[in-house]
Design brief:
By secondary structure, the chain is mainly α. The N and C termini lie far apart (about 50 Å). Helix 4 crosses helix 6 and helix 10 runs antiparallel to helix 11. It is about 70% helix and about 0% strand. The longest helix has 21 residues. The chain has a single domain, classed as Hypothetical protein af1432. The radius of gyration is 16 Å and the shape is globular.
Length: about 200
C-alpha cells in the first residue's frame, strides 16, 4: 500500500536530492510554466504543477539503466525505445511518482508518461505538460521564444500543433527516429481542425 502524497515542499526536497542541479531547475521551471498554462486554459492547477515538477523524476537513472528499470516495472519497450532508451524515462517516471512521491492520480501519471513523445487522445493536462517542457524559462533554442509567445495567444490545440511539428522537424534534422505517438498526436489535432471546417 502506498503512502499519502507528499506536499509540494517535500517533493521539491526529494527531487532536488535525486536529480542533478540543472535537471532539478528545469523541473521547477516546467512546474511553474505548467501552472501558468493551467490557469490560462482552466485545467486543474494542482495536477499541472505536480506533473510538471515530477515529469523528469526518472532522469535520476543513468541512460544505461533505463531498459532494466522499464523491464522491472513491466513496461513494454517498443522498437523506437530500443534504439533511443532515453525515451523510457517518461514511462518509468509515470510509475516512479507513485513509488517515491505517493502520487496515485492517473491523470498526473499519464501526463508524465506522454510528456516526451505525446500520444493518442491527449488530454488538456497532457498537452500542458508536454508544452511546458518545451518552453520553460531555462530552455534555450531558436524557436523557444516563438513558442512562448504562442502560449499566451493561441488555443491549446494550435499551441500543441506547432510544438509537435517543431519536435518532429528537430528529430528529422538530427536524423533520429520520429516516434509514432508524436505523429499520432499531431494528426489528431489536424483531423479535429478539419472536422470543424
Amino acid at each position: 500500500m502506498s503512502r499519502m502524497m507528499m506536499s509540494h515542499e517535500e517533493m521539491r526536497i526529494l527531487l532536488g536530492q535525486r536529480l542533478k542541479r540543472s535537471r532539478y531547475e528545469h523541473s521547477l521551471g516546467v512546474a511553474e510554466t505548467a501552472l501558468k498554462l493551467a490557469k490560462r486554459f482552466h485545467v486543474d492547477e494542482e495536477k499541472a504543477y505536480v506533473a510538471g515538477l515530477l515529469h523528469d523524476c526518472a532522469r535520476e537513472f543513468p541512460n544505461g539503466e533505463l531498459m532494466r528499470e522499464a523491464e522491472k516495472r513491466g513496461i513494454a519497450i517498443g522498437p523506437v525505445e530500443r534504439v533511443m532508451p532515453i525515451l523510457l524515462h517518461a514511462y518509468i517516471g509515470a510509475y516512479r511518482v507513485k513509488e517515491l512521491y505517493g502520487v496515485e492520480d492517473r491523470e498526473i501519471s499519464q501526463a508524465i508518461w506522454r510528456h516526451t513523445v505525446g500520444g493518442a487522445d491527449m488530454t488538456p493536462l497532457d498537452q500542458i505538460v508536454y508544452f511546458a517542457d518545451m518552453i520553460e524559462p531555462h530552455r534555450e533554442y531558436p524557436k523557444a521564444e516563438q513558442l512562448r509567445m504562442l502560449a499566451e495567444t493561441v488555443s491549446l490545440d494550435e499551441m500543441l500543433l506547432v510544438g509537435l511539428s517543431a519536435s518532429i522537424l528537430f528529430v528529422v534534422q538530427k536524423q533520429h527516429l520520429v516516434h509514432p505517438d508524436t505523429v499520432t498526436a499531431r494528426n489528431e489535432i489536424l483531423m479535429r481542425r478539419n472536422a470543424q471546417t
